Amino acid sequence: MSKIIRLQADNFKKLTVIDIAPGGGIVPIRGRNAQGKTSTLDAIMAALGGKSVMPSKPVRRGEDEGSIRVELDDGVVILRRFTQDGKGDSIEVTNADGFRAPSPQKMLDGLYASVAFDPLAFTRLDAKAQLARLRQLVKLDVDVDALERKIAADYDARRDKNREKDREAARLLQMPTYPDAPAQKVDEAALETQIATASETNGQIERRKVSRERFAEAIENNKGELVGVDQRITSLEAELVEAKADRDGLVALIAEQEDKLATAEPLPDPVDVSEVQAALRAARDTNAKIAAQAAHVGQERLVTTLTSEAEALTKAIDARRADIAASIERANMPVPGLSFGDGEVLFNGLPLDQASSAEQLRVSTAIGMATSPKLRVMLVRDGSLLDDEGERILATLAEENDFQLWVEAVDTSGKVGIVLEDGAVVSIDGEPAPEPEAIAGPKRRKRKIEAGEAMAEADPITQDMARGADLDETLTVGPDVDTLAPSDADFEPRHDDDDHDGDVQPEADTLPWEEAEPEPVRAPAASMGLFD
After folding, report:
1. Which of 60, 332, 349, 482 is the most buried if burial means most Cβ atoms within 10 Å?
2. How far is CA 71 from its chain centroid?
3. How far apart (Å, rounded) are the C-alpha atoms in residues 519 and 434?
4. Model confidence at 487, in pLDDT bands (50, 70, 90)?
5. How many Å is the maximal CA-CA distance in the chain?
């Protein structure tokens, strides 16, 4: 479990030269705006995170190259160099025995998580962003994203089922119901046939009645004609014989017709269809009720089916939620009482944003500390937003968990903490800061420069010989890792770390800290007055 015991940075962003040896607990970085506070914290980030977090132009404006050196209390030293054009960028990580890591960035990736977690920034995230960030830190034994996608699909399916159920239930309420209706429909066709037969019979009777009325009318007409004939007999004696014959014929005809009429069978009574028509109306009403009842029963079954399907989806959602909850129970959550909710982080069963500001800060800081078992360092930006209680919380947590918290805050007094001005440390708790030591450059570069100066003063023959020697030397000396011969100082053969940052580490004659160095600036601990 490491902490930073020394931070050096030359020509990084706004920094000129800084050399800080922080204590434990709170490391207060103070000063006015745009003086290098943020650059100091960014230097730690860049040293550990590499190109993924390195600014596009890390070198201070007007300079050609820069470097960052971080020394941990377990003897690990991170040295990162960078140039304006990026061609001279390199990284070197050594342990307490001087062995260099063959894949430095891969090793640093395990240390980067803590400095990348800012508890204040976490408290300002919205609920979904907090949940996403916590999921990155806590590994569960189930695929929560896959389960959430299935839950979302089930939610949509259940919503559609419930909408369909509500729609069909509304139709069900509008439907008439006849629970006393018979089970079998009445034969309407038979009744309609019966009515048709009766109508045909009644039509025939009506026609026969009209025919007889006409027959009776003909009789009446003949009687009138008989009267006329009688009058003609009286008036026309001359035509008596003929008239008598006509009369006899008419008498016989009348007798025959009267006999037929008298002997004709009586007409039947008209068929009464009112009862059948009433029966048909009743049958139609009964059958309508049967159909309505069948539709009602079918609608009830549909609503029941839709309800069952919606309930099944609810059970599926609950089961997946239970799987997630069980996984959370099994997971090693960084803070007791912390869990995942529906799109939010829960603390003691309630959304984290419902907790007090102090409680949110305490939980967020504890999350960052719990997720960083190796490097016990956190960076807190916007420390100016902290009130007295927030400052006490951070100080207490740092002390209780043996953590080092670099807290950046605006301070124009110049009397508290490590104060930066124009990219350099100018004071510590109001006292002038010692002169910082710049990071030593590669020794081979220095030798080559000195050799070049000596060669310039030598005679031409010596210069030619020296140039030849330089040409030979460039085959084994230089910043390009491909031209370096392995040395005894290598822990194992070095290679480009393509999977991690692509940085290369130039070899040096001596490690930077093997030379005598003046005592670095010692930063105050948490008791320096920041939280007094």
Report:
1. 60
2. 41
3. 9
4. very low
5. 193
Token representation of residue 336: 């007791």
- DSSP H or E run through 470: helix 460-473
pLDDT of residue 195: 92
Closest Cα partner for 67 from 5, 116, 8, 3? Answer: 8
Q: Which two tokens stand for residue 117?
A: 């977690």
Burial class (CB in 10 A: 0-12, 13-18, 19+), 503: buried
| 18 contacts: CB under 8 Å, gap ≥ 6 | 7, 8, 9, 36, 40, 43, 420, 423, 424, 425, 436
The token pair that represents 431 in the structure block: 């006292």
CA-wise closest residue to 149 among 320, 326, 330: 320
**In contact, 121 and 115? CB cutoff 8 Å:** no
Interhelix angle 188-235/240-263, rounded to 10 degrees, is 160
At 83, is the secondary structure helix, strand, or coil?
Answer: strand
- For residue 255, pLDDT over 80 is answered with yes
Residue 480 half-sphere exposure toward CB, CA atoms < 13 A: 5
State the pLDDT at residue 433: 92
Nearest to 451 by CA among 468, 466, 440: 466
CA 100 from chain centre, in angstroms, equals: 43
3-state percent helix, strand, coil for the chain, nearest multiple of 5: 50, 15, 35
DSSP string, 92-113: EEE-TT-PBPSSHHHHHHHHHH
Asked whether residue 498 carries a pLDDT value surpassing 70, the answer given is no
Q: State the chain's mean pLDDT as an integer.
A: 79
- Residue 94 has a pLDDT of 93
Question: What is the DSSP code (8-state) at residue 433?
Answer: P
- Residue of 22, 128, 41, 28 whose CA lies nearest to 386: 28
Element (H, E) at 431: strand 431-432
pLDDT band, residue 1 (cuts 50/70/90): low
For residue 461, give both structure tokens.
């023959």
- Across 352-428, the runs of DSSP E, i.e. the strands, are 377-380, 404-408, 418-421, 424-428
C-beta separation of 4 from 71 below 8 A:
yes
Contacts of residue 310, Cβ cutoff 8 Å, sequence gap at least 6: 158, 161, 162, 165
Q: Which residues pair with 78 in a beta bridge?
A: 70, 93
- CA–CA distance, 331 with 340 (Å, rounded to integer): 11
Least confident piece of the model among 31-35, 134-138, 487-491: 487-491
306 closest CA partner among 171, 149, 152 = 171
Supply 347's token pair. 């603390």
Tokens standing for 118?
């800012």
